[in-house]
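User: Quick sanity check before I run a bigger batch. Here is a single chain. Can you write out its predicted 3D structure?
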Amino acid sequence: MDSMQNNSQPTSSPEHVYPIFDKMLPRSAKEQFLGQKGLMVWFTGLSGSGKSTLAVALERELHRRGLLCRILDGDNIRSGINNNLGFSAADREENIRRIAEVGKLFVDTGVITLAAFISPNEKMRQMAASIIGKDDFLEVYVNTPLEACEKRDVKGLYAKARKGEIKNFTGVSAPFEAPENPDITIDTSVTGLEASVRMLLSIILPKIKI
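Assistant: Done. Predicted structure follows.
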């Protein structure tokens, strides 16, 4: 675990690095090509709250409208680019930092990016918003009660956490800080999937128009 944490620590930029950002096509050219503006839709909430389900349904609806999207999901990222990270506080923060940096690349290319991550505290979410750019960052708080999330427990994680088989599990043995000023709050235990997607579209569509 120690070696894993050491590998996760960001390193300072090498001395001889010369970015070519100024020579690349501007974001506006790519957005004009796609006919849409880039945007990060950041879903935060407990495990089982419905973040990924909402992101998948939203992606399908945006795709149906001819809009280019990309989902960044916790389990997918953990099995790929962040497969060397554990679940210590430092590794969780690095997990979100890398996701935000990847997300910024998509947003700057004009892609509507849907990120579904627990991101359990305000510090992490503010870091992500700062990296991506606050004007491009739409925070969606999936405020489904713990009881409803635990009742679903589709991955069996809450049961394992209650038995002590999973340490530092958000909502059971680790805290979750509710967002201070989310752009939209959805409780999937009382709002259906179709209605939730309509709520999201009402905010997203005006932001992505050229």
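The CA atoms of residues 4 and 85 lie 6 Å apart.

User: Great, the batch can go ahead then.
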